């Protein structure tokens, strides 16, 4: 899909599942089982983020029902997301790259990687999601 079917998802925050002990920056205690918590990550200052995505349509095998799918592109997390216990982060692109991202040239993948490398880099505050 990369180089062919690109999309943008506009978000103001994102949520991730993390292990409580990783969020707390510690090892599991003897006999302790892993517990999942959901964290809310908010860019600071608050803003709409243009998240790079890929999409696809897969023909359905039964009754002709197609499956429409997409995925946000993720990468290594910035320090504050890693410190919260998560191992990846969405990739928000800069507004000046939207047209090029949505009209990709499959013969110039380097230009697309350059857009991802020149991403917006907000600081992400986090808290436990309600």
Précis, in short:
The chain is of the alpha+beta class and 130 residues long. The protein is built from four helices and nine strands, in the order ββαββββαββααβ.
Describe it for me?
The chain has 130 residues and is α+β, with helices and mostly antiparallel strands. The protein contains 4 helices and 9 strands, in the order E-E-H-E-E-E-E-H-E-E-H-H-E. It has helices spanning 20-23, 79-83, 98-102, 109-117; strands spanning 6-11, 14-19, 36-44, 49-58, 67-72, 74-75, 89-90, 92-93, 123-128. The strands form 3 sheets. Strands 1, 4, 5 and 8 form a 4-stranded antiparallel sheet that branches. A 3-stranded antiparallel sheet has the order 2-3-9. Strand 4 and strand 5 form a beta hairpin. The radius of gyration is 18 Å and the shape is globular.
């Amino acid at each position: 899909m990369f180089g062919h079917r690109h999309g943008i998802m506009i978000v103001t925050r994102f949520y991730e599942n993390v292990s409580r002990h990783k969020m707390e920056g510690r090892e599991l205690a003897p006999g302790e089982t892993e517990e999942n918590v959901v964290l809310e990550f908010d860019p600071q200052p608050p803003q709409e983020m243009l998240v790079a995505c890929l999409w696809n349509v897969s023909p359905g095998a039964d009754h002709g029902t197609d499956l429409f799918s997409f995925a946000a592109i993720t990468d290594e997390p910035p320090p504050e997301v890693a410190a919260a216990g998560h191992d990846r982060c969405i990739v928000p692109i800069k507004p000046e790259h939207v047209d090029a991202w949505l009209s990709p040239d499959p013969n110039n993948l380097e230009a697309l990687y350059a857009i991802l490398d020149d991403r917006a880099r907000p600081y992400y505050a986090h808290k436990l999601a309600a």
